[in-house]
């Protein structure tokens, strides 16, 4: 055998070995993906068509978007369309669009109870004409504390998925509600004046009875106009107060307005004990005036240990029919914005 033949045979042997190794590695890569992995939760490209989201778990939650470009989201509560937190809904939809199954853990309905998909949290997505975009049955979280289980509406198999969807589907209606009292994005530098009139006997045992205004001076500084006349405000404290007012949120939507609203309604208070509509209710009013002339008024009603707040004016939130929205209000939130004059002067 000549030298040239030996070199040729050796080269062929090396080539065969390299090809065998490459095929083996490729096969190994394919075998590394568990059965049932890589199935998208929502069909690619389907999410832009979604205008309705239903989450049926501990609560039945229905979220709907206006059928216009960049339409706003609403949450249906007691048959009424109320403002929803659109950013959270969009984030949830994005999460569903990015998620894929990690593995298949059961192939028949016999395995459903083990993974909680026999009593699931049902998530349904609809397009504008009511057609299903996706229907997902989420079961329990995994014992290892990472991820959980779901099944699709098209088969009996159960799959393991990541954590991300579970955070959202386990939230209550409050999480999806937009409880901001004023439009997002308002900042202290856009405010020309704030006027506060408070006649509330006590919040957390602290009296809240005072009247004053924060107004801009000629140099843009804040001035307190109160019982002692016009005095310079502590700049940082004034900015903190105004920022607190601009970023106020309710704790939840009120059933149908504040306790002093005329006409029959569900106040959330046991009317067999006393009817708050027939009771003198302590009240505070915060008025915000912007440099562009727009105004908002926030009326806080206190009944016992409970507080309600009713925004009004062109900046106030409204429901799907354009009616004003009222909120239940936490005492600690009221303390942040009903600050006595002494807290603001230099």
Give a quick rundown of the structure:
The protein is α+β, with helices and mostly antiparallel strands. It is 22% helix and 33% strand. Strands 4-3-2-1-6-7-8-9-5 form a 9-stranded antiparallel sheet, with no helix packed on it. A 9-stranded antiparallel sheet has the order 13-12-11-10-15-16-17-18-14.
Oligomeric state of shown chains: single chain
The outline comes out as: elongated
- Secondary structure category: alpha+beta
Percent strand: 25-35%
Whole-number mean pLDDT: 86
Main sheet: strand order? 4-3-2-1-6-7-8-9-5
Helix content: 10-25%
Q: Secondary-structure element order, as H and E?
A: HEEEEHEHEEEEHHEEEEHEEEEEH
Work out the number of β strands: 18
The radius of gyration is 30 Å
User: Ranges with pLDDT <50 over ≥5 residues?
Assistant: 260-279
Number of helices: 7
The main sheet comes to: 9 strands, antiparallel
Number of structurally distinct domains = 2
Q: Give the termini distance in whole angstroms.
A: 104 Å
């Amino acid at each position: 055998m000549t030298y040239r033949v030996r070199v040729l045979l050796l080269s062929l042997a090396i080539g065969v070995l390299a090809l065998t190794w490459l095929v083996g590695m490729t096969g190994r890569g394919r075998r590394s993906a568990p059965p049932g992995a890589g199935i998208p939760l929502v069909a690619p490209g389907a999410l832009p068509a979604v205008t309705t989201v239903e989450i049926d778990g501990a609560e039945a939650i229905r979220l709907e978007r206006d059928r216009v470009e960049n339409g706003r989201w609403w949450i249906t509560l007691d048959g009424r369309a109320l403002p929803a937190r659109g950013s959270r809904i969009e984030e949830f939809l994005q999460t569903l669009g990015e998620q894929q199954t990690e593995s298949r853990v059961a192939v028949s309905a016999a395995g459903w109870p083990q993974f909680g998909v026999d009593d699931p949290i049902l998530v349904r997505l609809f397009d504008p004409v009511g057609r299903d975009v996706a229907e997902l049955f989420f079961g329990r979280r995994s014992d290892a504390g990472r991820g959980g289980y779901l099944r699709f509406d098209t088969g009996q198999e159960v799959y393991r998925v990541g954590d991300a969807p579970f955070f959202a589907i386990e939230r209550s209606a409050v999480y999806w509600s937009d409880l901001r009292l004023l439009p997002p994005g308002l900042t202290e530098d856009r405010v020309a004046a704030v006027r506060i009139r408070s006649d509330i006997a006590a919040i957390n045992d602290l009296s809240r009875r005072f009247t004053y205004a924060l107004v801009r001076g000629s140099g843009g500084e804040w001035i307190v106009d109160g019982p002692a006349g016009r005095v310079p405000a502590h700049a940082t404290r004034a900015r903190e107060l105004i920022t607190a007012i601009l970023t106020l949120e309710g704790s939840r939507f009120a059933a149908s307005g504040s306790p002093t609203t005329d006409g029959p309604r569900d106040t959330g208070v046991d009317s067999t004990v006393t009817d708050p509509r027939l009771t003198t209710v302590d009240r505070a009013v915060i008025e915000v005036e912007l440099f562009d002339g727009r105004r908002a008024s926030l009326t806080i009603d206190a009944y016992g240990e409970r507080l309600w707040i009713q925004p009004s004016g062109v900046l106030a939130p409204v429901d799907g029919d354009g009616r004003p929205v009222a909120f239940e209000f936490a005492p600690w939130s009221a303390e942040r914005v009903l600050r006595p004059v002494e807290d603001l002067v230099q």
